[in-house]
What we know:
This is Membrane protein. Keywords: Membrane, Transmembrane, Transmembrane helix. This protein is mainly alpha-helical. The chain has one domain (about 5-90). It is about 60% helix and about 0% strand. The chain has three helices and no strands. The chain has helices at about 5-35, 40-65, 75-80. Helix 1 crosses helix 2 (about 40-65). The longest helix has 30 residues, at about 5-35. It starts with a helix and ends in a 17-residue tail after the last helix.
Amino acid sequence: xxxxxxxxxxxxxxxxxxxxxxxxxxxxxxxxxxxxxxxxxxxxxxxxxxxxxxxxxxxxxxxxxxxxxxxxxxxxxxxxxxxxxxxxxxxxxxxx
Length: 96
């Protein structure tokens, strides 16, 4: 079971990748080799790009592996510096 944040992040990544790797290149190839005028049918092209984004999002949520829970010290520090404390000098404050 994936968390909601993980599903949302995978969905956003998949939408971007789907649009960039499926939607755009296919439209470009269709306009260059197939004679499809993108400027004459913006609605169809927009629907094609939206469909590519949906397919990319579905594929990413379905097939990408789960994110690692071991983020490392740098990510833990960026999230909450108080967790790392003495290894980065936060526990060595002169007032404590």
